[in-house]
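Q: Hi! New to this. If I give you a protein sequence and the SMILES for S-adenosylmethionine, can you show me the bound structure?
A: Yes, paste them in.
Q: Okay, here:
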Amino acid sequence: MQARRAAKARASPTSVKLVVSVMATPSPEFGFSAAAALWRQRHRLAEARPRLDALRAAIDDPVNLSPFQYAQLYAATLEFAPDLILELGRHRGNSTAVFLAAANQLAMPPGSLVSLDLSSNWEQLTLPRLRPVVPEDWFAPLAALRRDILRYDFATLLGQARRPLLFWDAHGLEVAECVLGSILPRIAAMPHLAIMHDVSDTRYADPASLAYGGDRLWKRTDHTGPRLKLGHLDSEVGQVIAILDFATRNRLPLHSADHSLRTELSAGSQEELASLLGEYFSTEAHWLYFSLNQVPPPHTFPRYEPPEQALNHTGRRIGTALGRLLRGR
Ligand SMILES: C[S@@+](CC[C@H](N)C(=O)[O-])C[C@H]1O[C@@H](n2cnc3c(N)ncnc32)[C@H](O)[C@@H]1O
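A: Thanks. Here is the predicted structure of the protein with S-adenosylmethionine bound:
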């Protein structure tokens, strides 16, 4: 899928004339840039290459995260230096391993990388393959929880955070509602960085990829089949609609890492990065980043209720309506 995604988004200097006001260039008051992170962390990245090679080989899931994305996430984490990393969607653990590597570099304490997923892939497939590659205390920062994001107690977790980094890689509009309605309101007032995976930038896509090419209309929320092209956003995953809606309402700039890497690195810097990092450098990225710190409050958020509560709410409304009907009102 990554290869397909990368092929579709292959570099092209052609700019697509679709503009969405929320897709902005970084403003000076926002202290994070994907390109600056990669550049400033390049030597630590170069040192980390053997470890990243070993992690990737053990995890053996190149579809979900490519080498250059390993590097970009590693650099972003070192650069932002969070006190808490909240990973939504672990699967076999590519991003989990990157964040663990960065958490070790940053000497983050036990439990400071909280990873949520319903699947047991990490324990069953990945851990047995990672254990021979890294020392046991390397895992200490990680709390790899098999929990439903929709039902997780973010109030308690985020109540203790001071500088969280959110990695959003679980798909679907239900999770999106939880991120936008339950997670973001809890971190809006503190320094934070949110990274959303699986979103490319139409400005750097092969113009041919804009054609439907026989595809039917996008109607799904998972990542199979037709892609959505919304302004500069280009994705297979439905939550891209939710983030664009949210960003529009809050006048929140959505930064594409692709745009950052292509516009903020000089040709000389790109050459240096390519020779230092090899396959760990690309100007492709396929992720977005944003922070409500860039927009003065008040912010607006969708209402969020965990599934049971939402059901109870609907049940109560049906009960009230039925009662009225029976009473003839
Ligand atoms: C694209 S994969 C994550 C890939 C991973 N970040 C990586 O780098 O390889 C998405 C994951 O989100 C998880 N997921 C989706 N909805 C979820 C939910 N409601 N609660 C917990 N996990 C969920 C799925 O089980 C799946 O493993």
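A: The beta strands are 84-88, 113-117, 142-146, 164-168, 193-197, 200-201, 228-230, 233-235, 255-256, 287-290. Let me know if you'd like me to explain how to read the tokens.
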